[in-house]
Amino acid sequence: MANLIGAIDQGTTSTRFVLVDAEGEFVAMSQREHTQIYPRPGWVEHDGVEIWRNTEAVIAEALEAAEVTAADIRAIGITNQRETTLVWDAVTGEPLANAIVWQDTRTDALCRELGGDVGADRFREATGLPLATYFAGPKIRWLLDNVPAVAASAAEGTARFGTMDSWVIWNLAGEHVTDVTNASRTMLMGLETLQWSDELLAAIGVPSSMMPKIVPSVGLVGRATGLLDGVPVAGILGDQQAAMFGQACFGAGDAKNTYGTGCFMLVNTGTQPVQSKSGLLTTVAYQVGEGKARYALEGSVAIAGAAVQWLRDNLRMIDSASEVEGLAGEVDDNGDVYFVPAFSGLFAPYWRADARGVIAGLTRYAKAGHIARAVLESVAYQSRDVLDAMRTDAGVELASLKVDGGMVHNDLLMQFQADVLGVPVIKPVVTETTVLGAAYAAGLAVGFWSGIDEVRSHWAEERRYEPSMAAGDRERLYASWKKAVSKSLDWVDHGQARA
């Protein structure tokens, strides 16, 4: 009898396949990184073919490690980097260009053009999103305008758009679908109708023939081929919504923060979308079958773990990401050094594509440890920015914050996060909640787990970080952070050629 659930996690820097048992524990996992392509400053691309080949490879490796076959797997879930945009041809099945990654800023001028006299909020009421380089709709339009092969395929009616969930499922099961969470990140879906909007498609200039079918997050969408031949594909969630699912944030007011390449705080707002007036995103949290969708407020931070990678790869201050905590721990405080990682502009709550990264407060006293500490502290400060906006928009007063992602193993960062927020920070036993959430979605769809309550019962706390900083110190440090942010703005002039 099939006693495992499989889950594919197609992330920004790597692709993983995991096998999960009935207790929600990992049986096997394989992971492969893919190439980050930087054609120009501010441009970030991925090779769709490389990503699919890696997906096939990690599936094979995990099956071999667990000594199982497709017959042992009840269903497959998929989670993915969300706004990353790929267009391929339905006849050849080949990408027509590299995928444009969510961090990419090349659509800045197009977004300002689309905003017209109204500005960034032109489509906010319908979509919950500001016009920004982050989202997929303008990326599709850019590809149509700038890549002749995409325009030609669209004219023939054979061009297909997808975020990476759609690309993986197309190759895995031959279906052209996406779920409501990923669709809500395109600027092309009505937030309440959960369908593609003819008005939005026309306004942004995207043919409806390119678009995948929108399906619930939890539900059967097809059956796999290849090594997983016949296994139901039964769950799809964008990565941050999957992390919410894996953290069992099923009740209104439940919140989580994921520390990965970027940093993403989401709070469940129930069955009604809450429009933000403080720079947050209104997004779909998940939909189970044909039930009512759940919504969330989200604060998206572009650069978190990526800043540590920058220390490693660009500045070569450390040899591995895990060394950053030791380097930062060589000093007692930040030495009045602040780092604003606006490599791709600033996302929530600022939404400033003209911002660029700065290191502020340098003196002859500053050394490598201060810079490393400032990099870690920048992640916590950006999360404070988001939480303050959530308090304003939804009246959210968190009693605690659940955290997950690779950076939660950094005790220095987690303690500082608790200190700068003034609330306990809770790390679960299983911190890889994104891929776990995708597994839960698939398992619920096929009855592997009985319901939400059983999934919730699997969540367990490993460690709690209690705030210990005096309120006056907290606010003094945060005021200096806000000053540093102000120094990063207006770096790129609107008339200047953009990357």
Description of the structure:
The protein has 499 residues and is an alpha/beta fold. It has helices at residues 48-66, 108-115, 124-127, 136-146, 148-156, 164-173, 180-183, 198-204, 239-246, 305-313, 324-328, 368-394, 411-421, 433-445, 452-457, 471-488; strands at 4-10, 14-20, 26-33, 45-46, 73-80, 86-89, 99-100, 159-162, 177-179, 213-215, 218-223, 232-238, 255-259, 263-270, 281-286, 294-301, 338-340, 358-360, 401-404, 425-428, 461-465. The protein has a seven-stranded mixed beta sheet with strand order 15-16-14-13-19-20-21. A six-stranded mixed beta sheet has the order 3-2-1-5-12-11, sandwiched between helices. Helix 9 (239-246) crosses helix 14 and helix 12 crosses helix 13 (411-421). The chain is globular and about 60 Å long. Residues 495-499 have low confidence and may be disordered.
General shape:
globular
Identify low-pLDDT runs. 495-499
Widest sheet, order of strands = 15-16-14-13-19-20-21
Measured between the Cα atoms of the first and last residue, the distance is 53 Å
Helix content: 25-40%
- Secondary-structure class: alpha/beta
* Number of E-state strands: 21
Instruction: Count up the helices.
Output: 16
Largest sheet: 7 strands, mixed
Gyration radius from CA atoms, angstroms: 22 Å
The proportion of residues in beta strands is 15-25%
Overall pLDDT level: 93
SSE arrangement:
Elements: E1 4-10, E2 14-20, E3 26-33, E4 45-46, H1 48-66, E5 73-80, E6 86-89, E7 99-100, H2 108-115, H3 124-127, H4 136-146, H5 148-156, E8 159-162, H6 164-173, E9 177-179, H7 180-183, H8 198-204, E10 213-215, E11 218-223, E12 232-238, H9 239-246, E13 255-259, E14 263-270, E15 281-286, E16 294-301, H10 305-313, H11 324-328, E17 338-340, E18 358-360, H12 368-394, E19 401-404, H13 411-421, E20 425-428, H14 433-445, H15 452-457, E21 461-465, H16 471-488
Parallel strand pairs: 1-5, 5-12, 9-10, 13-19, 19-20
Antiparallel strand pairs: 1-2, 2-3, 4-7, 6-8, 11-12, 13-14, 14-16, 15-16, 17-18, 20-21
